[in-house]
Amino acid sequence: MKTHKKIIAGLAFTVAGFASFAQQAPMYTHYMYNTLSINPGYAGSRDALTITALHRSQWVDFKGAPVTQTLTLHTPLRNEHIGVGLSVINDKIGPTHNTSLFADFAYIMRLNKSSKLALGLSAGANIFQSSLGSLNLDQSTDPVFQSNIGNHITPNFGFGAYYSRERFYAGISAPSLLQNNYSVTNLPDGTTLTGKEQRHYFLIAGTMLKLTSNLDFKPTALVKVTPAAPIQADVTASFIIMKKLLLGGMYRTGDAVGALVGVDITDQFHVGYSFDWSYGLKTFKYNQGSHEIVLRYDFIYSSKKQIHSPRYF
């Protein structure tokens, strides 16, 4: 099997859950705009009906590479202590395809005049499909790759805590607490290999530092933890110019470096783009980097409520 085919087979092997321990959650360079997809405590935090759409094409020109889309929406209710949201994730890697749909609920507590703590719950389901039998393998009788999985639905739920001030936020979450089985494979040596979802833990933080009247500095971080897999951290440093234009760089431990650019078209509408280049895997020899686009719109629906503009997180 050629090198790039081996890598895709390995990706399919991992995402399908056949590996005992692995990171299975999609990665995002714009994680700071996609917080609801990993932390339900974020629901309602922007004091508006916020809709965010993201598309990521990873390892462009690499056949079977990951392609991910997310769509999230969330809003506070009339009761200022309640936020609700909806998250949809569509993730495809080679012969595997996973779609997730989750509803989010947050209870928001005001700690003092300038800070809030929200506790969030999410509940929903994953729909997993895999056509591993379609892969061309050196060992065509490998039992792990003989069985396809069609529309395997697994329910799940998650938890998150989100602390925020005007210029700072931090959160911790586990968006999928159940470790559902995808498949069970009986190997020739009599052992059984169980493919299952792995529990992921996320820590997020960010702040906005005012440098001058027209220049702000926005460092953010996301740490991903999965049992028996390497801890991975995304670190991003961005400058906000004239409260409109964002220019920044990112570093993902053991994986990639990249750049981000964004612009607030209006106070309500943000458009962002990022490019990152994988340096830590053999894939960098065969791809043209990863591209990501994010769109976010705030529907400011209540003239009675004071909406701070700009909203930093």
Account of the 3D structure:
The protein has about 325 residues and is mainly beta. The protein has a single domain (about 5-200, about 260-300), classed as Porin (Beta Barrel). About 5% of the residues lie in helices and about 55% in strands. It has one helix at about 5-15; strands at about 50-55, 65-75, 80-95, 95-110, 115-130, 150-165, 170-175, 180-185, 190-195, 200-205, 210, 215-225, 230-240, 245-250, 255-265, 270-280, 290-300. Mean pLDDT is about 85; it is low at about 1-20.
Question: Main attributes?
Answer:
313 residues; 14-stranded antiparallel barrel; disordered N terminus; globular; 17 strands; 4% helix; Porin; two-stranded antiparallel sheet
Shape: globular
SSE arrangement, N to C:
HEEEEEEEEEEEEEEEEE
Q: What is the CATH C-level name? A: Mainly Beta
Which runs of at least 5 residues are low in confidence (pLDDT < 50)?
A: 1-22
Task: Please state the structural category.
Answer: mainly beta
Q: Would you tell me the overall average pLDDT?
A: 83
The CATH topology turns out to be Porin
Whole-number tally of structural domains: 1
- The CATH architecture is Beta Barrel
